[in-house]
């Protein structure tokens, strides 16, 4: 019986185009000035220390660190300090009304319904926890953060690594078979299945893959096939 829903964001609850065509360009444009203005902020400074350590860049060379971060953005690198700094920039954009998080209509409907039916909802995304809370807190359909019990990012482990899902299991303290993981990336589903989680592969566009794995176009199909029988 499914008691917990663990969901990805990009391509699952929200469009990939929103992340790549809106959020990433916004961060790339505003990150340099944000770092120059906020580099003495302890939270920002801590992440810059990690950027310097991971890249081998002189910590005192702010412009070089900015260059490293811009390169990571172009590479779509899943670097934890980059995700944290992007989250800070996006927070500023959301609070100033320049950004609104995208959420699919079916995801908006079923996230609320699943919560109301007593399911515990969690997010696991490569974006920082801060970025996750922002995208759900400032959506075009309102604030969805009250429906979630918690959030996980790459600090818990890489999304294609079974160990990360094992760590999530330890955090949640429930049997793996009671968790349903939703994602649009097959390698992530395989990693979750390796520790015993149930999965649903969201394929919102294009041809459906030939696979024995459960595939759905939207959350309505997930609900009808996997949750109404719970």
Could you please describe the fold and organization of this structure?
By secondary structure, this protein is α/β, with parallel strands linked by helices. The chain folds into two domains: 4-15 and 100-227, Rossmann fold; 19-95, Transcription Termination Factor Rho, Rna-binding Domain, Chain A, Domain 1. It has nine helices and six strands. It has helices spanning 16-38, 42-55, 62-75, 80-95, 105-116, 129-137, 162-172, 186-193, 219-227; strands spanning 4-7, 120-124, 148-152, 179-183, 198-202, 215-216. The protein has a six-stranded parallel beta sheet, sandwiched between helices. α8 (186-193) links the parallel β4 (179-183) and β5 (198-202). The longest helix is centred in the N-terminal third of the chain and has 23 residues, at 16-38. The radius of gyration is 18 Å and the shape is globular. The chain starts with a strand and ends with a helix. The mean pLDDT is 95.
